[in-house]
Amino acid sequence: MENRNILHVQKLGFQWQAESPFLVTMHHRDAYPAGNEEQGPNVSLAGRNLGEDFTIKDGFRMYHGEKVPGFPYHPHRGFETVTVVLEGFVDHFDSTGALGRYGNGDVQWMTAGKGCLHTEMFPLVHQDKGNPLELFQIWLNLPAKNKFAEPEYKMLWAEDIPVIQSVVDNGKKSTVRLIAGNLLGKDSLEPSKASWAKDKDNHVGIYLIKMEPEASFTFPAVSETLNRNVYYYEGNEISIGETVITSMNRVKLAGGTETTIINGSAESYLLVLEGEPIQEPVAQYGPFVMNTQEEIREAFRDYQQTQFGGWPWGRPDPVNERNSGRFARYSDGTIEKR
Fold first, then answer.
1. Are strands 259-263 and 216-219 parallel, antiparallel or unpaired?
2. Per the record, which residues fall in region Disordered (predicted)?
């Protein structure tokens, strides 16, 4: 029997396919060992393709890092990154002079806008035990009118992110962490100023759902034009009507009707991305997302000529002091500590 609430099902790979206003999502999960004095892995890195290490070996990857895992300085223009850290830490440095460390439930919302350089390094702060890391990085497009916004980032600290609990008749519970949008009568924290998510009429939602065994959760009807994607990344199986879906699948749901998900016999974890599409052409090449190929060429020229303001940090892969804790220092000098 046809399930009209399900529009598409797709297996998940390393990069998770997204739909406007989102561009792509990456899920990183690495079992890093204890750290050394440089906050890198305290094990031999022999046999790795350092600088381009994207193959799991001994439970982890170094990505583009050579001493500390992660992503040394690189440019972006024309979109935003929303980095959701479930476990572990990320060190941020950028070309505006901002820096910080966040993790263990924190979310960084960064608007690249007209262009910036930034890092995402994964410091291994614990020397006496392992340093597991799990995070999502979500790329959210900017409309043409905001693609040249001033670069900025803001922190959505774990303690401040709204948490919603939905309990059904059998007493089983679903817990939702609302990163963006409105759900079940609650509003998220504010996104960045230039974001497509700033206008509530764009119905941008980013949220994580943890479902107990046999729990259910109902997505509300929003609009016929809404793109709603559910990334079922951990668990056994869920059911939507008579359709059974196993984990590691993307499920596109109709945005204009209510849809109920019923969990199976194991805990399930889902990431939900939804929003009204940006009705504009997309031209993307590597770290730049614009509307035309000429704008992409312009982005490369600007980066080659200006380095988007240059890099003030002395090394391409800086990290904070081991005991710095969670904090943000913004380009205007404002400091937040957690």
1. antiparallel
2. 307-338
